[in-house]
């Protein structure tokens, strides 16, 4: 069994059992000692526990209509499968060293948060405001985080960083893509968008000649097109972005991104821009059609020209300016600008208000409004 399978198994155990371990029939003291011994010498399979489980359970049950049984079912491997088979590894490691998984039913994604500055910021600074905000803003475009897992106890793998110590479980707004492929529909397009006007060393030093193409490909995407929206759709889009990013700026978050999904609309969408993608039979209704009722940016917004369905969410809001690692990066970039070349701030070293301003400008720039 490889590293990814061990990590997946520890995630599944944390979700499907109360204390992160599968229930044992025997309470033999020797068996307990051997289990603790195995945990300590584990490289990849860490003992994970849910952080603030009551808060996330409250969001799922009472505001997102995700009942405990269906949620846990998504993390079950099936009768013939092993524990780790309930999650499928996707994507690559990226700059942050994150691991990504999807549940086999594609309803949820699991992303590791290995950097201490990021998972401590979410736990200590943003978690309570996030939970309170998501209760009062059902149409928020912030990604829905359904659980937060953290390693407990000592182990060699945790101390040496062989496996990520924290993970978030989040809604998958790409849910339905596999079904669309099976139907023969055009594949969905997606972009991870951030303001590109910042200084990116991988791109901007020596015109990117010192960095591999694989590394540069992990930078933010560019959307060379327009999201066609009606006036009402655009107003709601901008209002949600303004409100959501205000929360993030108030808590010093920067470097978040807009994850945009575009799919070709079926012909019947052209006659009614308010018809949801789910209602047209294009994508499944469960999820992401938990409250609010479709159409929404989670289920799919139909463009008034009848050509596309769009989904969008704000992701990766874990980088905070007041944490030690961001402060160190800010110092290094400021020194580079002073001593070597004036390139300006990076997206991870700018101020929260300045980043928000550029982020909103980027979002407004990719929208074209069609007056009705």
TrEMBL record:
Chain residue ranges for the region called Disordered: 270-301
Q: GO cellular-component terms in the record?
A: plasma membrane
Does RNA-binding show up as a keyword for this record?
A: no
**Which BP terms does GO give this entry?**
phosphatidylinositol phosphate biosynthetic process
Q: Which keywords does the record carry?
A: ATP-binding, Kinase, Membrane, Nucleotide-binding, Transferase, Transmembrane, Transmembrane helix
Instruction: Give me the stretches of Pro residues compositional bias.
Output: 285-295
In the record, what terms sit under GO molecular function? 1-phosphatidylinositol-4-phosphate 5-kinase activity; ATP binding
Pfam families given in the database record: PIP5K
Looking at the record, the residues that make up the PIPK domain are: 1-367
Question: Domain of life of the organism in this record?
Answer: Eukaryota
Tell me the protein's name.
Answer: PIPK domain-containing protein
The record's PANTHER family line, in alphabetical order, gives:
PHOSPHATIDYLINOSITOL-4-PHOSPHATE 5-KINASE, PIPK DOMAIN-CONTAINING PROTEIN
Give the stretches traversing the membrane: 30-48
């Amino acid at each position: 069994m490889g590293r990814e399978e061990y990590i997946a198994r520890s995630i599944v155990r944390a979700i499907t059992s109360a204390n992160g371990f599968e229930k044992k029939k025997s309470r033999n003291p020797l068996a307990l000692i051997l289990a603790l011994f195995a945990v300590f010498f584990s490289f990849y399979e860490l003992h994970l526990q849910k952080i603030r489980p009551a808060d996330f359970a409250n969001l799922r049950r009472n505001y997102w209509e995700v009942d405990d049984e269906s949620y846990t079912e998504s993390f079950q491997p099936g009768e013939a499968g092993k524990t780790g088979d309930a999650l499928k590894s996707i994507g690559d490691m990226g700059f942050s060293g994150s691991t990504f998984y999807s549940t086999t039913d594609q309803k949820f994604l699991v992303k590791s948060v290995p950097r201490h500055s990021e998972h401590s910021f979410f736990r200590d600074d943003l978690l309570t405001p996030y939970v309170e905000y998501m209760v009062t803003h059902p149409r928020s475009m912030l990604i829905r985080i359904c659980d937060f897992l953290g390693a407990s106890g000592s182990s060699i793998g945790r101390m040496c960083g062989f496996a990520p110590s924290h993970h978030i479980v989040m809604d998958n707004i790409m849910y339905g893509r596999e079904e669309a492929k099976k139907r023969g529909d055009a594949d969905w397009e997606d972009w991870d968008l951030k303001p590109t006007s910042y200084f990116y060393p991988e791109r901007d030093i020596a015109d990117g000649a010192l960095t591999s193409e694989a590394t540069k490909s992990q930078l933010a995407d560019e959307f060379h097109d327009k999201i066609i929206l009606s006036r009402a759709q655009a107003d709601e889009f901008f209002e949600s972005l303004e409100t959501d990013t205000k929360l993030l700026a108030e808590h010093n978050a920067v470097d978040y991104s807009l994850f945009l999904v575009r799919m070709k609309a079926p012909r019947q969408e052209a006659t009614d821009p308010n018809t949801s993608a789910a209602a047209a039979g294009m994508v499944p209704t469960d999820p992401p059609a938990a409250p609010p009722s479709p159409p929404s940016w989670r289920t799919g917004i139909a463009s008034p020209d009848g050509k596309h369905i769009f989904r969008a969410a704000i992701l990766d809001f874990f980088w905070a300016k007041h944490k030690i690692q961001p402060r160190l990066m800010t110092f290094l970039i400021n020194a580079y600008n002073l001593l070597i070349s004036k390139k300006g701030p990076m997206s991870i070293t700018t101020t929260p208000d300045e980043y928000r301003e550029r982020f909103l400008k980027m979002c407004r720039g990719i929208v074209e409004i069609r007056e009705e």
